[in-house]
Amino acid sequence: MAGRRAAGRPPGEPRRVAYLYLLPAFVIYAAFLLFPIGRAVQFSLYDWDGLSVGRWAGLDNYAAILADEGLRAAFGHALVLVVFYALIPLAVGLALAAVLNHAKVRGLGFFRTVVFLPQVVAMVVVAVAWRRVYAPDGTLNALLGALGLDSLTRGWLGDYAFALPAVGVVGTWVETGLVTVLLLAGMSRVPPDLYEAARLDGAGAVREFFAVTLPSVRGEIAVALTLTVIAALRTFDLVYVTTRGGPGTSTTVPSYEVYHRAFGLGQVGSAAAVGVTLALLIFVISFGINRFADRGLT
Amino acid sequence: MTPSTRRTGRTPAIALLAAAALALTACAPGSSAPPAPGSQAPSAVRTDAAALGDVTLTVWDQEVRGGQAAQMKQLNDAFQAKYPNIKLNRVSRSFDDLNTTLRLALSGNEPPDVVEANNGRSSMGAFVKAGQLLPLDAYADAYGWKQRYPESVLRYSRYSADGKSFGEGNLYGLPQVGEVVGVFYNKAKLTKLGLQPPKTWADFETALGTAKTAGEVPLQLGNLDKWPAIHVFGTVQGRHVPAEQISALAFGRKGASWTTPENTAAAEQLVGWVGKGYFAKGFNGQGYDPSWQAFGKGEGVFLIAGTWLLADLEKALGDDLGFMLPPGVSADAAPVATGGTGLPFAITAKSPHPDAAAAYVNFITSADAMKVLTSTGNLPVAETGEQSVQAGPQQDVFTAFGTVTGKDGLVPYLDYATPTFADTLGAALQDLLAEKATPQEFLATLEKDYKTFTESN
């Protein structure tokens, strides 16, 4: 051990000084992130209304979450949203980016901006706009009417079968731009000689995509999936503005429950428990995605 | 990975554990605030505000829109002019912002002196339970509030000292304005259909049928936001269920039941209207604001909604707009309507100047203040019938509110019942109106929430 240190020590100042440099950032990180997380975990172990003195509840709040049918449904809805927020945008984004990258269209910068635009607009604004689109007298129904498809018109956000997909489509619309731009950046880094080699070996466009493009953007896919899956699981603003969890309870999501319990019902302990559970779920899923991507690279 | 990167990777995890351990060993949440001083009213209350010395009052209100903001400014200026020794520090926020921040503000060591607190169990009820509000009964006696305000209005600010029973007990706040859910109608449409404003509930239902046959939208509704149908159901319920039963259910008191033949009849009538196509198409997917705006544009003969829409609808429809209390089973039946008050002004238990605070609350709810409220387009909660307003929809509203409070016919909003009832009822009504639930299933859902709460309260 001693010998290793003498030989293996890098030149320059002793290592431990580095921690001193990290300290200012760590203090801020601890004060604004670690401490609140610790407090949230603490709250989740109490039965607390936010006003009077809390009562120790142990894991009761967590047990109640597991037993709560409505809350399980909310987590289920969040998983459905993952399909709309992450998987569909990924499929669309891959196709779109491959075409844009390949075709070398004129005005690529313009298309990139247009596709990315939904990301720039605040989610609340997006939600208000889509609420109008989906209204019984809204744009979507007007469009269907003009096509002679009157039988399909309905109040989309008030329909039990269509409300959740309708909310999901908004997510797809928002996230596709982000995914496309990320993948486009990745694809433009692929050395042209790889494509040349593939073509010399007789690969067509499709084969080229799967053999060259897809493996090259694995890292970007991981980043895109991580971002969009997190966005899907913590959806709050979109549901809050469009449906408030309705019709009935068909579009409730966990984040909405956190807000509702803490500020509406005054069940701060239970709200914290839902929040911690959601954070853990997000952590596990994004950890899985990154493990998958890392393993693919080595 | 090299050993050194692995080591740095572990550090945050250790720090996180340390932070968590630190937090866990700290005392229980909420215990850092000192206990509230005895929430008894001072034995001798002082009403001579000018003699209270130099005092600064912090007031949190939500009077930020149009006529609300105007009346508050006018009354505050008048108060300052009359009592220069009392300085007002006004903090005003929107309703939603106030609701979400008040809880934290009240649990702090220096809460505001006067706050507008929502009546419901999860707001005012929770604050009373935590001993954060001052009972105002001594001031009510000193200032004669009980003579000026009808009991059916005051009870919306009453709680037992432990915060458990709502609608009775100590008085914890005083509202400025009133509101009642009634029937807005489009006079031009009624004339075209050859109809008079209905005098009985049966007339009303017939009028809906006539409107439907003539190709009009009989009853405008947008229920995407979940709560609007609560007002429609409450109105239908008031025709079928005795008022005292509705009050017991809506205040979440023991001993009532949702699964009665009367409630079933109300739910059946409501869902029957869906079957007959009386509501606007796609109502469960239409927002509340677009729906009343559509009524303002002439889509819809009737709209069951609260008086808070008066100013906006009057702007859109002018003298074509009419308003009435929901008609009774017979023309001479006692009026029953869902309604309540604006947010009551309450005084915090930790306020060092309760006498000055009470003087302020009294000033903004005095007979003179009611005149200011009228002139700024609000509906004053007391002495409503004595205000002079122009004939037209505004007079309709004043007459309606004066009549229903005069005969103690106001019944509370159904979502007051339990802390979770707004959600339970909102979702259940969407299910009922979409015919996903039968009236029996609908009432069973409500009964479960109501019973769970009353048995544990």
Notable traits:
heterodimer, A: 298 residues, mainly alpha, MetI-like fold, two-stranded antiparallel sheet, flat, B: 457 residues, alpha/beta, D-Maltodextrin-Binding Protein, domain 2, 2 domains, 4-stranded mixed β-sheet, 19 helices, MetI-like_sf (chain A), MetI-like (chain A), transmembrane (chain A)
General description of the model:
- The complex is a heterodimer of chains A (298) and B (457).
- Chain A is an all-alpha fold and 298 residues long.
- Chain A has 14 helices and 2 strands.
- Chain A has one domain (63-297): Orthogonal Bundle (MetI-like fold), CATH 1.10.3720.10.
- Helices cover 74% and strands 1% of the residues of chain A.
- In chain A, strand 1 and strand 2 form a beta hairpin.
- In chain A, helix 5 (108-120) crosses helix 8.
- With 457 residues, chain B is α/β, with parallel strands linked by helices.
- Chain B folds into 2 domains: 49-177 and 342-382, D-Maltodextrin-Binding Protein, domain 2 (3-Layer(aba) Sandwich), CATH 3.40.190.10; 179-340 and 410-456, D-Maltodextrin-Binding Protein, domain 2, CATH 3.40.190.
- Chain B is built from 19 helices and 12 strands.
- Chain B has helices at 3-25, 66-82, 95-107, 121-129, 137-143, 145-148, 151-154, 187-192, 201-213, 228-240, 243-250, 261-275, 288-296, 310-317, 354-364, 367-375, 393-406, 421-433, 439-456; strands spanning 55-61, 86-92, 114-116, 158-159, 170-171, 178-186, 219-220, 302-306, 321-324, 337-341, 345-347, 410-411.
- In chain B, the strands form 3 sheets. In chain B, strands 6, 7, 8, 9, 10 and 12 form a 6-stranded mixed beta sheet that branches.
- In chain B, helix 10 packs across helix 12 (261-275).
- The radius of gyration of chain B is 25 Å and the shape is globular.
- The termini of chain B are far apart.
- Chain A: Its main location: membrane.
- Chain A: One of its GO terms (biological process) is transmembrane transport.
- Chain A: This is Raffinose/stachyose/melibiose transport system permease protein.
